Amino acid sequence: MPTVRFTRNLQRHVSCPTEQVPARTLREALDAYFAGRELARDYVLDERGTLRKHMAAFINGRQIEDRRHLSDPLDDDAVIDIVQSLSGG
Amino acid sequence: MSTRCHVSTRKGLFTLERGSQGWEIARTSFLGDNVTLAMHDPRSGHLLAALNHGHFGVKLQRSTDGGATWHEVPAPKYPDKPEGYTPKTPVEGTPADWSLKLIWALAPGGPDEPGVIWCGTLPGGLFRSDDGGESWSLNRPLWDDPRREEWFGGGADHPGIHSVLVDPRDSRHVKVGVSCGGVWTTRDGGGSWEPTATGMRAEFMPPERQFEPNVQDPHMVAQCLANPDVLWVQHHNGIFKSEDGARSWAEITGVQPSTFGFAVAAHPRDAGTAWFVPAVKDETRYPAEGRVVVTRTRDGGRTFQTLSAGLPQHHAYDLVYRHALDVDDTGEVLAFGSTTGALWFSSDGGDSWQTAAAHLPPIYAVRFEQPH
User: Fold this and answer.
1) How far apart are CA B210 and CA B184, in angstroms?
2) What is the DSSP letter of B246?
3) Alpha carbon distance B135, B131 (integer Å)
4) Torsion over CA of B152, B248, B268 and B108, rounded to 10 degrees?
5) First CA to last CA across chain B, in angstroms?
6) Residue A85 and residue B55: Cβ atoms within 8 Å?
7) Which residues on chain B are in Cβ contact (under 8 Å) with A55?
8) Those residues with Cβ within 8 angstroms of residue A15's Cβ, 6 or more apart along the chain or in another chain
9) Residues of A with CB below 8 A from B81's CB?
10) Stated pTM of the model
11) Terminus of chain A with fewer CB atoms < 10 Å: N or C?
12) H runs (alpha helix) in chain B
């Protein structure tokens, strides 16, 4: 199953431990991870479910292609990293 | 008389208490984080603090023990746009974004509606909570009014509601101040709204549109609690006053050193008294001649005093934002804080000032705890 990891900077505000989730796309992975974690979801995604402007997502070390729909596909052993983008200062 | 004051800054929330030595910092909360506004609810004693984490979005924290501990509550959320509906911003013509950018106003409802809290936001949504801030819903009548879509940003990229005034005579009678969108009033608890900014003047608009109510930029609206039909506005173009509950507004001119500024406070008992913190208009925004002063009228705006005792008068460039001036329930105790982290208190209606802190982070909001 793909693994989801979060920046330590986020952990200061809300707990987001590393977890494995069943998913074939980034969207499915984040939906699975954030199920029952609504407050944590709001730190990463906005009301539209879009990645916040100054957040970045990587799959196996490569920046994702589809920030809006999060349709980037996942291998079974994919590692997802959710970090803050330097563009936010 | 208020003995506690909450100061929201770029790097945390500072709570000051009045002791034998004057006002001193008694507690810090969220140190290092960007606290944009805090509200004390006089009905419950609870606190709400709005934070903007930048990367991670706008958040709300709530305390039920006077600020000793906090827990996060869901921030207001904008709804999905209707299918196929693609509104555009009126100035830039770009797609209008329906997502929370900033919490810009927090105001408790009336004493007869415990749990009700109003929340003004960027990009222009007014939210209401019926459970003390634990959950929020967008006021659809105002949001869905097509005239709302004409609102535009002043200093910010998005329009926003910065003032929410609940009439002490009738909790269903609420006014909101919008930059830029004037002043709007509901008399049925938010079921219907009308623009109420007739008489205001927007110099930044083409001549034929300068008096349109819906383009006005009131920076802050303040209301006399004892006589709620008397309202004061620090507007982008100057000072305006209403004596008829916002049905009409009159401009007050000639106030020295400037009629430009952001903040205004209304005396809670004396409808003739209000305070402003002037700055050089409007492109430069610093205290005239590097002197920090407060202007005060005690006769309904006919004359003003320039108050400077205890305030820096030499090369001081403190700007005071719209929520960073407040007056307590007696009308005698005032406080204001600046973008350069200075915080002053007065206990004599502004005649003299004492520096409570000189090196705080940039100050966004100063709010007294009003008595229960």
Assistant:
1) 17
2) T
3) 7
4) -40
5) 11
6) yes
7) 55-56
8) A40
9) none
10) 0.95
11) C
12) 140-143
CATH topology of domain A3-88: Ubiquitin-like (UB roll) (3.10.20)
Q: Do B59 and A89 touch (CB under 8 A)?
A: no
Alpha helices in B105-184 (DSSP H): 140-143
Domain map (residue ranges) of chain A = 3-88
Q: Does B283 contact A at CB distance below 8 Å?
A: no
Nearest to B239 by CA among B255, B223, B226: B255
**Chain B, 56-95: which have a CB under 8 Å from a chain A CB?**
56-57, 59, 72, 74-75, 77-80
Q: State the nearest Cα–Cα gap between B79 and chain A, in angstroms.
A: 8
At residue B234, the 3 state secondary structure works out as strand
| CB contact at 8 A, B322 and B234 | yes
For the beta carbon of residue B87, count every other beta carbon within 10 angstroms.
14
The ipTM is 0.85
DSSP letter for B329, please. Answer: T
Positions in chain B short of pLDDT 70? 372
Element (H, E) at B69: none
Using an 8 Å Cβ cutoff, are B203 and B163 in contact?
A: no
Helix/strand/coil for B210 = coil
pLDDT of B372 reads 63
Q: Per the structure block, which two tokens stand in for B337?
A: 């804080």
- What would the pLDDT profile of A22-59 be if each residue is shown by its tens digit? 999 999 999 999 999 999 999 999 998 999 988 999 99
Around B259, how many Cα atoms within 13 Å sit in the side-chain half-sphere? 19
